[in-house]
Amino acid sequence: MTSEKHQKKIAAIHDLSGYGRCSLTVALPILSALKVQCCPVPTSILSNHTGFPTYFFDDYTGKMPLYVEQWKKLNLTFDGIYSGFLGSEEQIGIVIDMIKDFSTPDTVVLVDPIMGDHGKAYQTYTDRMCSRMKELVGYGDIVTPNLTEACILTGRKYRTNGWKRSELLAMAAEIWDMGPDSVVVTGIREGGYVTNLVAEKSREPHFLRSLHVGSERPGTGDVFSSILAAETVKGTPLSDAVKKAAHFVKACILKSDELHVPIENGVCFEEILSLLIRE
């Protein structure tokens, strides 16, 4: 029997939205299905995600150091540290401190630099926060920006399509220079395909593409990055983890469209979670 000591565990630093399938309500079941213990660190509490017309929001910034201090007293370390949406510059600093305090030489740090989409930064992201995010990226082993976020990080002008692969590789190299070992640029449109660029230092880059299907939905990035975090902590090669994540996200979108799930409700991954559990 696998002991707790040998079961992989990941500290997942995300907001908790009670409705809408994103952040921790995605990370918890996905990591668990992949046989990894999820140890959540809530950055804020929401009744539902902000894509709905109304929501309750409680900023957890002031409570996070008190929460994390207890883990320090317990001398905890983690096989993985996985950060998602952060609501303030102060939270970025807290995550950097967590990486320093709870990592071992074998800890995999995955930073999902959630800053924007469709060519625009989220309203909460100031220039100062974008600058601090570059600092956090430097502490990551794996960084998973979408195309918008990769442009924000590198100061490039966003465009929906028409990117040359040489341009994308240059952008990944610039993000490498910030410190991470691996960069996965997600959601690159190439005609009727969606491509993910997997760029690892000292390895040939991979452009992994699949047919674009279904509706664009919130929470798919959280599903993708959660699978990546779990698989890489277990030792799965990054390109294989990206293929698995992309395949599952695609299946979730198709199932959600089939069941006429409202767009704002995200993807009904619960319907096909058995695909992950069986492996």
From TrEMBL:
Keyword Cell membrane: no
GO CC, any one term: cytosol
Annotated keywords: ATP-binding, Kinase, Nucleotide-binding, Transferase
Biological process according to GO: pyridoxal 5'-phosphate salvage
Gene Ontology molecular function terms on file: ATP binding; pyridoxal kinase activity
InterPro entries the record matches: PM/HMP-P_kinase-1 (IPR013749), PyrdxlKinase (IPR004625), Ribokinase-like (IPR029056)
Record-linked Pfam families: Phos_pyr_kin (PF08543)
Enzyme Commission code(s) on record: 2.7.1.35
Gene3D superfamilies in alphabetical order: 3.40.1190.20
CDD domains, alphabetized: pyridoxal_pyridoxamine_kinase
Sequence ranges assigned to domain Pyridoxamine kinase/Phosphomethylpyrimidine kinase in this UniProt record: 79-256
Protein name: pyridoxal kinase
Native source species: Lacrimispora saccharolytica (strain ATCC 35040 / DSM 2544 / NRCC 2533 / WM1)
